[in-house]
Write a structure and sequence with these properties.
The protein has 19 helices and 2 strands. The protein is mainly α and 439 residues long. The protein is globular and about 55 Å long.
């Protein structure tokens, strides 16, 4: 096989894995072994073929390590060290292997293949298409079953074992992409195409609205404000009509579904007004917030036990379950028997990899943030720069109340964004010639 044909085959695997990413479902065996089908086997196959191509000489490995490459290596080196000293090494090893698969696929594959602009656009188009299909599927489920707090969890369960926020978080980049397209893409100046983009935006926003996810509501408001800050009022007001149309259709559909499916709302369900009014309520009456607070407080107690290297990557869920099962009457904690992470990326790093894990993780995110901050001081940002900056900021925002480091639908997109940003910042041939002439 020639190198060009091998590369074309690998690209097909890459695109296929990306397409399967939003549409895959969580599968758990009786022994607790988790797998996201079909995307994780496809990602593993893609990475394996990538390694085979590098060893066999069909692919050329990058010659020089970028600073971002080194920071990623340092962070994962710290996680490996924490795995070696973990109290549950098998759990930590599986967790670390999963994280390495995601970064190798989302960041490593484009890095080794040296994707061109057209290939990047195809990758993003494939991912956006499958994400739109997911939004359409979820919306149809809501139209058939109605809207309620409990339904938002039930509909999300084929894709996630717990919760709905992770499902909507992966829709937010699609909302951002549609907003930027409505603002800047020349094709969307045509009335028909603009109407089509508005319809797709309405579908995605409708799914987010029906999710009862307070974090996603806040994130979308922040996205709108950040777009206003970066593009200015003169351009931003172009979004008012599409958003107004979407809001009217969402409210109308909500009212119709409430009347059509009155049995969808259970006695224990919370109203949307109640959900929005309890954002800052961390008392035991608010299970979602109280559970987060309990996990954060317990996480800090675990950090005091192993402050340098942590208790081991991926071990927090079992540690917390063991705690609540053996001390259910503890005055500071609400009883909950869900096997989940700490619901805060930074607390997870601190607990599972200690101060070293938190430091290297903050260094990694901080480096990306500083590079984006340089753009902010420029007088005029390009649409691509605005997109990168807004996406990164709402990823940081969500990480305060969620831990997406092992959620493939979210974190693979994050690594893709990091790779795309690096591609976007690469020196152009003109810049390289100017630098050589100056030297």
């Amino acid at each position: 096989m020639t190198p060009s044909r091998f590369r074309a085959f690998l690209l097909l695997l890459f695109y296929g894995s990306l397409f399967s990413l939003p549409l895959s479902v969580d599968w758990f065996s009786d022994r607790g072994f988790g797998l996201t089908l079909l995307t994780e086997p496809l990602m593993a196959l893609t990475v394996g073929v990538l390694v085979l191509g590098g060893v066999g000489g069909w692919l050329r490995w990058p010659g020089k390590a970028h600073r971002l490459d080194k920071l990623i290596g340092i962070h994962f080196g710290t996680l490996f060290l924490a795995t070696v000293f973990s109290g549950a090494p098998l759990v930590s090893a599986k967790y670390l292997a999963t994280l390495l698969l995601y970064v190798a696929f989302g960041y490593g594959v484009p890095r080794v293949l040296h994707l061109t602009r057209v290939e990047w656009l195809r990758a993003l188009g494939v991912l956006a298409t499958s994400t739109a299909l997911l939004a359409g599927y979820v919306l149809v489920r809501h139209l058939m079953q109605g809207i309620s707090y409990s339904n938002s969890y039930i509909i999300a369960q084929p894709f996630l074992q717990h919760g709905h926020t992770n499902l909507t978080v992966m829709l937010e980049p699609l909302v951002l992409l549609l907003n930027l397209a409505l603002l800047h893409h020349p094709l969307l100046r045509k009335q028909g195409l603009r109407l089509l983009a508005t319809a797709l935006l309405t579908v995605v926003l409708m799914v987010v609205a029906f999710s009862y996810s307070r974090a996603s509501y806040i994130s979308l408001v922040m996205q709108a404000l950040l777009l206003l800050f970066y593009v200015g009022w003169r351009e931003w007001r172009q979004l008012l009509l599409p958003w107004s149309v979407a809001a009217c259709l969402i409210l109308t559909t909500w009212q119709l579904l409430t009347q059509t499916h009155p049995d969808a709302v259970k006695v224990t369900d919370k109203s949307i007004v109640h959900e929005l009014g309890t954002v800052s309520d961390f008392t035991p009456t608010n299970e979602s917030n109280a559970e987060r607070k309990n996990r954060w407080v317990f996480g800090l107690e675990l950090f005091e036990q192993e402050p340098i290297i942590g208790v081991g990557p991926g071990t927090f869920p079992d540690r917390y379950l063991d705690f609540v099962r053996n001390a259910p009457s503890h005055v500071n904690y609400t009883i909950t028997f869900r096997r989940m992470n700490s619901h805060n990326l930074y607390v997870t790093w601190l607990v599972e990899a200690g101060a070293l894990g938190l430091a290297t993780g903050v260094m990694l995110l901080g480096y990306v943030g500083l590079r984006l901050l340089r753009w902010t001081w420029r007088r005029r940002l390009t649409p691509t720069q605005v997109g990168f900056t807004v996406y990164f900021l709402f990823f940081l925002l969500h990480s305060l109340t969620q831990d997406f480091w092992q959620e493939p639908r979210v974190i693979v997109l994050f690594w893709l964004a990091m790779g795309l940003q690096r591609y976007y910042e690469r020196p152009t041939p003109v810049a390289l010639r100017q630098t050589a002439a100056t030297a």
